[in-house]
Design the sequence.
């Protein structure tokens, strides 16, 4: 065996022993939970600027580590194409997680208070939409990969209707004030559309279409389902309600499971949007 071959095998063993496999599959989720959870908790209960700083540290850590991992995948192709693909999957998973601290940074740093509450979702959603499009292109994902399919079977209709139940149930937990002054059809059209697109669609694209999909290539279906659901829960710490965190976690599991089984994002997007329409626009007038 030549020196070059031996060196490559040693590097391969080093990767297998220290970076890839179950160790990395454990370290990355744990680090993600700690950073996202602490950033959201600190921003909510202590200091917003410190929370933003934690989100920024997490964001730059993901960018640097994903770049290093991707370089490793290129080097690994010389002796193992399969191993290179596995390493590349980890790089893409890390890239997908960039969306999570980005949401926190945008939400806490934008001057939202000068706008009406309903328009906050647009202000947060526009830069997030740009980031989602760029990530999808960079990670070479097709529309079908993220659940954008052309068919809408009947089961998707019933999945969408679960948003009515979820919306009223979550209102009983949070009891937020209505985002409109009066419950009339004209007042529902624009706010309802905003909630459907900038919460329902964007959040399902982020947590299920991108993060969960990319995590599946590294962690497997069951672990990725749990992973995306916990992240979904942690991003709701700002509501300051432990019962709501449990509720959001369970809803996240439901949405993630449906997405895994159907690979169709339309039903859960509508359910998510309807949940927020009921929660913020309709339920406050019936259950206050």
Sequence:
């Amino acid at each position: 065996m030549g020196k070059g071959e031996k060196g490559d095998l040693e590097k391969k063993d080093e990767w297998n022993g220290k970076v890839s496999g179950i160790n990395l599959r454990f370290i990355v989720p744990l680090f993600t939970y700690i950073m996202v959870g602490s950033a959201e908790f600190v921003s909510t209960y202590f200091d917003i600027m410190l929370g933003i700083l934690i989100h920024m540290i997490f964001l730059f850590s993901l960018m640097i580590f994903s770049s290093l991992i991707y370089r490793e995948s290129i080097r690994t192709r010389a002796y193992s194409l399969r191993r290179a693909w596995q390493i590349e999957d980890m790089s893409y998973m890390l890239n997908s997680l960039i969306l999570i601290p980005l949401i926190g940074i945008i939400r806490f740093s934008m001057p939202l208070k000068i706008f009406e509450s309903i328009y906050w979702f647009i202000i947060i959603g526009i830069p997030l939409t740009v980031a989602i499009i760029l990530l999808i292109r960079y990670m070479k994902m097709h529309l079908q990969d993220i659940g954008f399919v052309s068919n809408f079977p009947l089961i998707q209709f019933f999945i969408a209707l679960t948003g009515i139940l979820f919306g009223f149930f979550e209102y009983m937990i949070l009891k937020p004030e209505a985002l409109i002054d009066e419950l009339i059809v004209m007042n529902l059209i624009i706010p309802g559309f905003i909630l459907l697109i900038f919460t329902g669609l964007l959040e399902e694209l982020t947590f299920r279409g991108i993060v969960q999909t990319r995590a599946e290539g590294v962690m497997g279906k069951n672990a990725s389902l749990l992973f995306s659901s916990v992240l979904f829960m942690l991003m709701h710490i700002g509501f300051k309600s432990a019962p709501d965190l449990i509720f959001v976690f369970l809803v996240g599991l439901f949405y993630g499971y449906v997405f895994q089984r159907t690979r169709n994002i339309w039903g859960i997007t509508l359910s998510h949007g309807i949940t927020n329409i009921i929660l913020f626009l309709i339920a406050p007038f019936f259950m206050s």
